[in-house]
Predict the 3D structure of the following.
Amino acid sequence: MDIFPDEIYIWQHIEKTAREVAARYGFEEIRFPTFEETALFNRGVGDTTDIVQKEMYTFSDRDGLSLSLRPEGTASTARAVIESGKYADTLPLKYYYIINCFRYEKPQAGRSREFYQFGVEIFGAQNAAADAHVIAMGNALIRELNLKSVALHINSIGCPECRPKYHDALREYFRAHSDELCDTCRKRLETNPLRILDCKSEICSKIADTAPRTIEYLCDDCSAHFDSLKKCLDALGITYSIDTRIVRGLDYYTRTVFEFISEGIGAQSTVCGGGRYDGLIESVGGPRMAGIGFAMGITRLILSMKQDGVLPEPPANLTLYIASLGDAASVKAIEIADRLRHTGISAESDLVGRSLKAQIKYANKAGAAYTLILGDSELESGKAQLKKMSDGSQVEIDINNIAEMKAALQ
Ligand code: HAM
């Protein structure tokens, strides 16, 4: 993915805001490798998911070990927690990450093969208060980015105790429609009928509309957990709707699943997806330990911000452009620019031998707040006119007095 300066400031704004909000909610940054052993994602994300079956970038290293570029961050974070032994520290562990991920998907608006996620994970907290905490953090970030057309959808998909009953009900329902299902869903009927609920095919999706709903099959504990989450969200004043079609495309989820969905950015409208994964850490070789988290797609956040008209202003980076005429003035311009930079001022001078007129044109285009023109007479007198570009006003400055110049630039 190539991102140029004319857009990077939006990314930086989102990342900075995400870091600030995460810190306020007590999350600390974690970094982990771009690729892992393929087996981690097979076991963590799940063998029956599209991600593992169709979308991973998998290759062998020189020893024949199968590695995959990370398609997401949760499995890697769990692996890091296990490998480091941090699971034995004071709980809960709360991490956030900003990472690139890789999935071999059909590119379209809001979906690319390399994409960026801001994600958070909590390990070792099983109470619904933790679910509410991560949702509140995601909600706070979305509000802080001024997004208006984003809505929270929640659901509970139960646990290994209640899920078999639900799977049976789904199988029974979908078997009656098996002739109409797409080929993939016909296979899913046996392997993982839950996956049919988020099939993108129009026919499967229509059939799924009237399928049995997860929340009607929850065991008492899962039901109480979901009630408790709703109470917490109500207490926090967070608006949500219960959406029983949300089952998420990764196998590790248990109980709470949720998505923040943006209206009007097209088919790829989920800006944030997450949920609880109480079995993941154990399934990838760790102790039995609860987990909950989410990840937001940065490109989808940008699409949503564009749509809501809340993109940040491009930053004004250049304080001073020093134009020069002649070799001696050009050297003086380089010297002044660098001395000013040492004091914290952003300054530029000509590096490509432009005419004076072209230099001024460049300064305008670069959005310089001030310009200074140096020629032989300025070098001789040691004085030059500092021009404020916003109103054209000029003040005379001593070109050998950097402190005075800096003061005039504030
Ligand atoms: P996910 O739903 O696969 O969940 O991805 C999370 C978010 O990443 C999506 O909602 C979307 O905004 C963005 N995203 C996914 N695929 C693409 C793509 N191809 N192009 C652009 N953006 C994309 C996870 O990855 C889980 N690990 C989230 C999680 C963390 N659950 C618990 N903890």
Q: What stands out?
A: The radius of gyration is 28 Å. The chain has two domains: 5-162+218-308, 320-408. The chain has 15 helices and 16 strands.
